[in-house]
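Memo to structure team: turn this sequence into structure tokens by end of day. - J.P.
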Amino acid sequence: MEAALHPVQDAALADMVMDERGVAGWAIMPMADYVAERGLHEGASALALLGAMTQRFSAEFAIRPFLQHDPQQSMAQLMLWARDENEHLRRLASEGSRPRLPWGMQLPALRADPTPLWPLLARLMDDPSAYVRRSVANNLNDIAKDHPQQVVDFLMPWRVGASQARLRLMQHACRTLIKQGHAGALALLGYAPPILQGVSLQLFTPQVTLGERLSFGVELQAQSEQNLILDYAIYHVKANGQRTAKVFKWKKLTLSAGQTVGMQRHHPIKVITTRRYYSGQHRLELLVNGQALAGAEFDLRVI
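Reply from structure team:
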């Protein structure tokens, strides 16, 4: 099968290449799936074939059955790839081992205990490729959904002397924790509990019809200089009448002592495939560094 691979490497991996010299691009996917289905007992040779394939189209899905079947051998191979000069192999090491990879099979052992991932992710934290670093951040974000404090503890030493690239990785890795208001993650990124002299939330549209916008404004006055993350949560009414929150990112800002800032937001309430709306009293909350500091009710009408 390796003889059928196109000699081209590091091309646009989404583009299909198929000519007399071989195959590359998305046409590799069914070939990788075949290796995952038939090659579990072939060990090193099957892993080597996936390594060759991933340089022509990602094998991040196909590697996962190997991690479940023989985690020790597979993790050892991922560590070797994490040291490879080819960025697609380094990314495979991180992306393929994500505990919660979207559209990929789950890895329950790594979800339960991410310990084997720490040396691998540490190796890639300062990878020269943004493509690889983003995968590392996504892997950490997966882990954070089950082990939030472990992710904060892992990242804490990396905060010292961090480059801008590493800081961006850490911010992306902690995005779920920031939405949840995790105090440790906020502190890691330089966001202390807010100290504000005044907080006000004004709702401009207390009644909203599906398809319209929820408009509101906020005003903050800082007591001391501080970094702030502003988010907001909308508590949507569900079919059973209860409400569940969805957090939306808004703005990052730094306020000096005594500074007052005001801003407005217009949030569309429109039909989307991932949410069903129900009429009733919904709630808007302003989140500052993860803390709910103000809220207001609004009525949504679905017609």
